[in-house]
Amino acid sequence: MNAKREYxxxxxxxxxxxxxxxxxxxxxxxxxxxxxxxxxMDNHYVPNLTFGPPLCAALRKHGVTAPxxxxxxxxxxxxxxxxxxxxxASYISFHPEASEHIDRSLRLIRDSGCRAGLxxxxxxxxxxxxxxxxxxxxxxxxxVNPGFGGQxxxxxxxxxxxxxxxxxxxxxxxxxLEVDGGVGVDNIAEAARAGADTFVAGxxxxxxxxxxxxxxxxxxxxxxxxxxxRA
Length: 231
Prior knowledge:
By secondary structure, the chain is an alpha/beta fold. It has nine helices and eight strands.
């Protein structure tokens, strides 16, 4: 069944060189990445502060046409959803803990013209997904605790991916299953075998390239594709 799924690689700009972000994103996409991941943090829901809608809009103005995958680690979520939609987001996902009315937030995303996602922290069960799967276009499982890049993958995520994959398959809906945190060449195939089809990688892509050749994302993404081909 895995072979029939289209795998997407999603570089996270959290690990990019922000001084030349547009250039980095364009080169990552040219190297074979599929979708650009935004880790939006508010120093409230998570202990860090990152990007707002203007950066999303800036990439669109820079000529980036690939889907923009906005992961909201903010609380509350409803106020900022329309801003990211207007700024050019394609997917907007949020944590159930950050919304007082989860169904309303999902509908707000879709009514704003974007695809809606739910994000589950390592210790958050998938119960909400069972009730809201008809409103969901993307499920994102955190394989680290949210807030910082460069963390190690939590192995228990593999079983949770299998659980989420079964829920998605049983629903009969076209829903992406994304994994975020500590994903790299060494474990991307195992995540795919567990059911993931979309892989967020920040340090593994931008960080690795910056340590070797700041302009070469081809080798890293090619290695990931090679592992996925064997999944």
